[in-house]
Write a structure and sequence with these properties.
It is a single chain. The chain is mostly helical. The protein is globular. It is built from 6 helices and no strands. Helices cover 74% and strands 0% of the residues.
């Protein structure tokens, strides 16, 4: 029997379940993600939505932003996405684990969208949003480790190498972006 093609919404719901499984370290986490080419495209749409939400989400919920801040956020987040994906590709290639790049990217992309939604919620809560920010950092670390462990099946040392390579890549990308576009805009 032919497998029915999931809609984007169905893929989104499954991926959210996968993200929750990653946070809790459940071994069935990979079963919630589509690692096919179609699934990659769906996860790239999720990243685009997450980046757009990070840039324009505050404005949509009534938080005033300085002129150009949303565009600057989108540029920075897009550059960070490319840096993260690029360093993951290089690190996994150096480890001889190119087979893990697509699954890593798909799962990470969905985590990006879920994180963007949580960060927008933190904006709505004002000072209480700090609790959500702390939770997002903890969740980000847990999902990173569990993507490496459960999705890509890396050893602890390989997860550490991947983490360090991405941290360096992201810091270099941030430095380059800061030089090119300057500091964030201030004022409304």
């Amino acid at each position: 029997m032919a497998k029915t093609t999931a809609t984007f919404f169905e893929e989104l719901m499954a991926a959210v379940q996968g993200c929750l499984a990653l946070v809790t370290g459940k071994r069935d986490a990979p079963s919630f993600f589509d690692f096919s080419q179609r699934g990659l495209i769906g996860s790239l749409i999720a990243v685009i939505l997450g980046i757009a939400l990070a840039g324009f989400g505050p404005v949509l919920v009534g938080v005033p932003l300085p002129s150009g801040a949303a565009t600057q956020s989108i540029i920075v987040n897009a550059v960070l996405f490319v840096a993260q994906a690029g360093t993951a590709f290089i690190a996994l290639r150096q480890m001889g684990r190119q087979d893990g790049f697509l699954p890593y990217l798909v799962a990470s992309n969905w985590v990006t969208l879920v994180s963007a939604v949580l960060l927008l919620l933190s904006t709505l809560l004002g000072p209480l949003g700090l609790i959500i920010l702390v939770a997002v950092v903890i969740v980000a670390i847990a999902t990173f480790i569990n993507i490496g462990r459960l999705i890509v099946t890396l050893t602890p040392l390989q997860i550490g190498i991947l983490f360090v390579s991405q941290a360096v890549g992201v810091f270099v990308a941030l430095a380059i972006v800061a030089v090119i576009i300057g500091p964030p805009a201030t004022g409304v």
